[in-house]
Amino acid sequence: MVILLGWMLALFPHVACKTHIIKCNVRDPHPPLHKYHQSGDVIIGGIASHSFIISNALTFTVEPPQALLEELAVVTKNYQHILALAFAVKEINENPELLPNVTLGFHIYDSYFIARGTYHGTMLLSSTPERFVPNYKCDLQNNLIAVIGGLDPLTSLHMATVLDIYKIPQHCYHNLENMKGHEEFGNTDKLSRWTWIGLLTMDLENGERFVQMVVPLFLSSGICFAFIERFLKLTLVTELKDLLQQGAKIHDKVMGSTANVLVTYGESYTILFLRWLPYLSEVEGKMEDTRGKVWIITAQMELTSLVYQRTWDTQIINGALSFTIHSNVISGFHQFIASRNPSITKDDFFIRDFWQQAFACVFPSTVGGEVDGDICTGEEKLPSLPGAFFEMSMTGHSYSVYNAVYAVAHAVHSMFSSRGRHRHMVDQRGLSFQNQQHWQLHHFLRNVSFNNSAGDKVSFNRRAELVAGFDVINWIFSSNQSFHKVKVGKMDPCATSDQVFTINEGAIKWHNWFNQTRPFSVCSESCHPGSRKRMKEGEPFCCYNCIPCPEGKISDQKDMSDCCICSDKTYPNKNHTFCIPKDISYLSYEEPVGITLVFSALSCSLVTLLVLLIFKKHHNTPIVKANNRDLTYTLLISLLLCFLCALLFIGQPQKVTCLLRQTAFGIIFSVAVSCVLAKTVTVLLAFIATKPGSKVRKWLRKRLANSIVFSCSLIQAANCTLWLATSPPFPDVDMHSVIKKIILECNEGSLTMFYCVLGYMGFLAIASFTMAFLARKLPDSFNEAKFITFSMLVFCSVWLSFIPTYLSTKGKYIVAVEVFSILASSSGLLGCIFSPKCYILLLRPELNNREQLIIRRI
Length: 858
What we know:
- The chain is built from 22 helices and 27 strands.
- The strands form 8 sheets. It has an 8-stranded mixed β-sheet with strand order 10-9-11-12-13-16-17-18, with helices on both faces.
- It is 40% helix and 15% strand.
- It folds into 4 domains: 3-57 and 69-177 and 395-459, 3-Layer(aba) Sandwich (Rossmann fold), CATH 3.40.50; 180-298 and 303-330 and 470-514, Response regulator (Rossmann fold, 3-Layer(aba) Sandwich), CATH 3.40.50; 531-581, no CATH class; 592-857, Rhopdopsin 7-helix transmembrane proteins, CATH 1.20.1070.10.
């Protein structure tokens, strides 16, 4: 991305802002080895990153020699950046409409990837060619208007330190990384599931800034880092031992990690180091790991190769995905670079070293004595070079250089057009340009907007950055080391939110190790629906175990952090993957349990009615009259109502049935138990009254029994009235007791009053049982007391069993338990008390006489 840097205040106040013109013959004492000049009325400067000067670190015990042996390593691919600048100047000079009657020239120097070379080359740009006098121009031959460079951030920073003093505009063609695209690579919807990645950066300030920028972005997108490694920067003096040790360490970390995706950030030449990794590991005596990785290469980095890496295996980066600065086909550029030849190219001091290292040959004139190796003829063809050494199509960085030159030309055109000086320049070219101040061009550069020859729009945003996006390129290496770049996606910051990042996954060719299946890079396998993630203690959040969802919860997606609770009207399926609507449930008349209970209630009611009719038919017989027949009829009628009362508990709960079922049952059952208590008391008093002189006889009248029944029943009626007045039962819906059911029920309102009603009936039952138990051995006729004892024993057993069963049962079966308890206890009273008497009345009528009654009492 081309970046327009603003100017700064002068760093050194003693340097005059006005250019001084003097005559001098001082030459540069250390002229740079690599330079490329073309004269013109207006000069564009360029700082290229073309060569490394490599020296071995030596320890001296005596004074060192005057010069040390240095080796030059050319990054041959970067030569295209120089050619892009020269080609753009050529096109502009051939265009009569852009800068008419004005020729554009350039001065290009090599930075050698070091600060010393950058500062030296930048100072030379502002000085007279061949005469290096800082802060002065010795003649009018250097009308420097702007500078293009550098390739890497540090190079640009070092250039700005000098150029800011003179307020000379600077165009940088390195890339300020836009992390939106890299973040999207972890998006499952965009590509593969890449949530577990490694990060490699160069150990520089901008590398650390990259880490601080990218880590929060990735973490917020659910992406974790298996490791973050920093590798050394290649410097003028490189310690081979340190390089070997670190390279082997990084290789082991990369190949030993479970992360299949690696994000790499570095300078333009970082790929040189990556290609070293397998060999550095071998030097350390370790076997090379053939495990494949998906390398995500940031836009600053290019596939480059040094001369001695020509035959090195490239499989380590095969299938890499690279963000590249957007480029387009520029007409004529291919022919321009194909015509380059060191024998006919003048003033280009880059090309000979480029040619020798690109084609692995030597020009005889550059060495003395016998030549060891191939001889360069100068007729070698650039298209025959592998892609790692040189590309014929314009790269992203070269495209940025090309656009930067045109941006300067358009700005110069606008600057002079605004002052109407075109005609004046025809006669006084040099003086007109010399009178222009560098800083005046900044305003016009910021407002540049044009379409280049490829049809792409070139303009700058508020941050003086070129408004452009990235292409996503798939690096493919064939078995013969040939290199192909396939565009598989793009990132367009001007597109709509859903089109900012697009990628064609089907067009990607992965590393051979993946067998062309889509690679995954996760710390833990996905948790399937029906389970959730549980973090592993002490590890990143991408590493987890999968545990099933608990009862009542579901997870309907992969990798859910927690399970969801179904709504009140739904419940989880067997696999806990989705919610199923609950069925409505209540004790209905149609289901088997309801039918059975209804049949039992009606059958018991019919039996009770028959017993009542039998007793009514034998109304005046001694056995009916013996135990207060009115009390007997009251007991039978109350039992009949108890059986019928059970029907109130069956069917969908309604407001009326909810109000009546417990209160009616409580009162009616209390009447029945009160009758039993009254009969028991009558038996005891009857025995006591037979003793001579007993005063109890007067209590044997009917009013005693009636008083017992009335008073005991009245207390229960008061309890029920208080219940209905304070917190009456009401129809309710229970969503939670049974997971798969919505229970329609009667809410008891006040559980305290409910248990008071049941407790009072229990009290009456226990009182009756106690009285009957005490009277069980009395010489009573027909063993009335024994029968009452048995009946109350059954009654108490039923209701004592009812309480724990009631509390442990859920749903409609709670109602079934209560109905069963009503029917069982009522049947116990009916059977134990009245079955012996019915036996005599129907089958042994001869025992139903007064004489027999007196004999039994004696």
